[in-house]
Design goal:
The chain is of the alpha/beta class. The chain has a single domain (about 5-210), classed as DHBP synthase (Alpha-Beta Complex), CATH 3.90.870. It contains seven helices and ten strands. It has helices at about 20-25, 50-60, 75, 85-95, 130-135, 155-165, 205-210, and strands at about 5, 30-35, 40, 65-70, 100-105, 120-125, 140-145, 170-175, 185, 195. The chain has a ten-stranded mixed β-sheet with strand order 1-8-2-3-7-4-6-5-9-10, with helices on both faces. The longest helix is centred in the N-terminal third of the chain and has 11 residues, at about 50-60. The protein is globular and about 50 Å long. It starts with a strand and ends with a helix.
Length: about 210
């Protein structure tokens, strides 16, 4: 297959490509795209075939869940079983930003996305391209680092093409990504919440908002 390419911000000359790009994502295609940290692989988080294709592209074990991005709290409500009060406090403080929250998933989220865990990891990205996607895409978007498992995540479109050229449907060039600090990962299905990984938001910042975490 041929990987189509698109630069963001989108130039006037490239505008005719956008409808094809949009159609591809709606049809279950896999895209490589910039985030506020590194490049990611993504697609429709409700499409099991898309999910399985991303696992295969990365060589990722199916037991390891994939993260999703949401546009706003309304989309979050359609993605998780419930939103605890602690989550609302954290959302107001840190979203959009480098905090990923783990919730119990709602029934429409495929088990393939969550590694059969019954939970789903969600965040809201401040990246302009990610915000652009949600102006026309009304479903959660898969977001996993663009690299074969064990390799260094792609920081440029050239890295993306080197890893996945001819294997993904579209590659979006958003320039070099230099922030390699991962998002903080907090599990809200535990009491107290469990800090799985500390990244762009510190444990101390979280505790100032909601009290002790484990």
């Amino acid at each position: 297959m041929t990987t189509q390419r698109l630069a963001y911000p989108i130039s006037i000359r490239a505008e005719p490509l956008v409808p094809r790009f949009v159609e591809c994502v709606h049809a279950g295609g896999v895209i490589g795209y910039p985030t506020e940290t590194v490049y990611g692989l993504g697609g429709d988080a409700l499409n099991t075939r898309t999910i399985e294709r991303i696992y295969r592209l990365k060589g990722r074990a199916f037991r390891n869940p994939l993260l999703v991005l949401v546009r706003d709290r309304d989309m979050l409500k359609e993605t998780v079983r419930s939103i605890p009060s602690q989550a609302d406090v954290l959302i107001r403080a840190f979203w959009p930003g480098p905090l990923t929250l783990i919730f119990e998933k709602c029934v429409r989220i495929p088990g393939a996305l969550t590694g059969g865990s019954g939970t789903v990891a969600v965040r809201m990205s401040p990246d302009p391209f990610c915000r652009f996607v949600f102006t026309w895409f009304d479903r959660p978007l898969i977001s996993t680092s663009a690299n074969p498992s064990g390799a260094v995540p792609a920081q440029t479109e050239a890295d993306l093409i080197r890893y996945f050229g001819g294997k993904i449907d579209w590659a979006v060039d958003g320039g070099k990504r230099q922030n390699t600090t991962p998002s903080t990962l907090l599990d809200l299905t535990c009491i107290p919440p469990r800090l799985v990984r500390e990244g762009g938001v510190t444990g101390k910042q979280i505790e100032l908002c909601i009290g002790a975490v484990s």
